[in-house]
Each structure stands twice: as structure tokens, then as C-alpha cells.
Amino acid sequence: MYDLEQAITERHSTRMFLPDKPVPAELVQEALDLAMRAPSNSNIQPWHVVLASGPARDRLVAALLKEAKSAPPKVPVLPEAFAHMRSDLGKLVYGSMGIAREDKDARAQAVLRNWEFFKAPLAGIVCMHRDLDYVDAMGVGMFLQTLLLALTARGLGTCVQVSIAGYPGIVRDQLNLSEDMRVLCGLAIGYPDPAFPANNLWVPRNPTDSNVALVDR
Ligand SMILES: Cc1cc2nc3c(=O)[nH]c(=O)nc-3n(C[C@H](O)[C@H](O)[C@H](O)COP(=O)(O)O)c2cc1C
Predict the structure, then answer these.
(1) Which residue out of 11, 17, 64, 161 has the highest number of ligand 1 atoms within 8 Å of its CB and is therefore the one to mutate?
(2) Which residue segments constitute the domains of the chain, with CATH numbers given?
(3) What is the pTM of this model?
(4) Is 126 touching ligand 1 by the criterion CB < 6 Å?
(5) Residues of 123-137 as b/e, b for ≥16 C-beta within 10 angstroms?
(6) pLDDT digits (tens, 9 = 90+) for 51-105
């Protein structure tokens, strides 16, 4: 088990899992029980999570991959002012996979792995009730980060995936989700593939003072 600082530092996105190494159910249960301690507006606990494994996960992946091969995902478009950050991240992530910028086929194959949950044996879907608002999405985020840290502390890899929310109808149909549930993101959980170089990428952050202002007068 890690201490908190180690878990925060160690957590990073895993983009290739060991498909045949099962995720112990008791570790996931412990992590979920800890994440339930997350704060939320009026203690609504707005997160609703579905974890699919085995044939349920495989059916979901098959349906998502089929759709992803024929129609683009409906993910929120980044405003112009932030678009460069996606492109900077793409250079880092695909560069670390050894994919050249101009190799569009290899990049498309790598992107497609999103809808296989990067081969993770456990495929999570994170939802929130449709009538809830931004303030409640903050609560879901707090739950999610707590979950990621608790899973990291148990030696598991994770990747949060907005790409999964790009096909909400498929997710809803496959998992019998109520129409009331808004699909916010996916969450891949499993043991990282140590042979995949991009799993050792630690994406840099801004200097803290570019995001935080300290005001005392
Ligand atoms: C809400 C959210 C959505 C994300 N969606 C995706 C995604 O669809 N595909 C992906 O490969 N990574 C996705 N990520 C991972 C981010 O790219 C990653 O967290 C960020 O680049 C920082 O890298 P790190 O997690 O390795 O520290 C997402 C992360 C968050 C928090």
C-alpha cells in the first residue's frame, strides 16, 4: 500500500493493460468503498458507476468498436483557445507509442483502442443523473480521483476516458442504463502492460502559479 503522496505521484494514465490478468474483486471493492467517502453538494453522492467484466465487457467493447469504425464519437469540442493543448498531448502520447505524426493509420489504430478500454479486463462507466448540474459533476470528479488513487495504491492502472461517452446510446443499450443517466466518461481498470512504452509517460503539468493566484491584499 502507498501513502497518499506516493499514490498521487504514481497515478498516471495507462493506455495498454494486460488483458488476461484478472483484477481482484476485493481490491476494487476496497477502492470503491474509499471513494464513496468523497464530498459532494448536499451529500447527494451524484456518481453512478457501472463496472463491466467478462462477457458483459466484451459485448460492450464489440458494440463500441463497431460504432467507432463507422461514425465519429460525439465528444465535446475543445474551444479554439485550448485546442493546442490537445495537440501537445497527442504529440507526447502518440510519440511515446512510437507513432510518427504523419502516420495517420497507426494513429487511428491507437485511437481505436479507446473503445477497447485499452484491453483492460474491467470497463467502468461513470454516470450522473441528467437533472444534476456542474456543481454535482464536481462531486463525481472528486469520487473519481479518490477511486483512481485508491486503485493506484493497490497496484492497479487506470485511464479515465471521455471517448467512451462519445457513444452514449451504445453504452446505455449494452448496460441497460436508464435514460435518466448521463454518461460522463469511461474508466479502464487493470494491470498495466509493462512492455508498452507509453505506460511510462508522465505528462508534465503547468507551474502551479500559472493556475493558482495567491491574493493577500
Ligand atoms: C475527464 C477526462 C477524460 C479523459 N479522456 C481520455 C480519453 O478519452 N482517452 C485517453 O487516452 N485519455 C483520456 N484522459 C486522460 C488524460 O489525457 C490524462 O489524464 C492527462 O493527459 C494527464 O495525464 P496523466 O493522467 O497520465 O497524468 C482523460 C482524462 C480525464 C480526467
Answers:
(1) 161
(2) 4-75+83-200 (3.40.109.10)
(3) 0.97
(4) no
(5) bbbbbbeeebeeebb
(6) 999 999 999 999 999 999 999 999 989 999 999 999 999 999 999 999 998 899 9
> Which residue in the block uniquely carries the three cell numbers 484478472?
22
- CB of 182 closer than 6 angstroms to any ligand 1 atom: no
Q: Indicate whether residue 12 lines ligand 1 (CB < 6 A).
A: yes
Residue 134 identity (one-letter amino acid): Y
Beta-strand ranges (E) seen in the chain are: 48-52, 122-129, 157-161, 181-190
User: Is residue 126 within 8 Å of residue 158, measured between CB atoms?
Assistant: no
Q: Is the CB of 36 under 6 A from ligand 1?
A: no
The total of other beta-carbon atoms located within 10 Å of residue 217's CB is 2
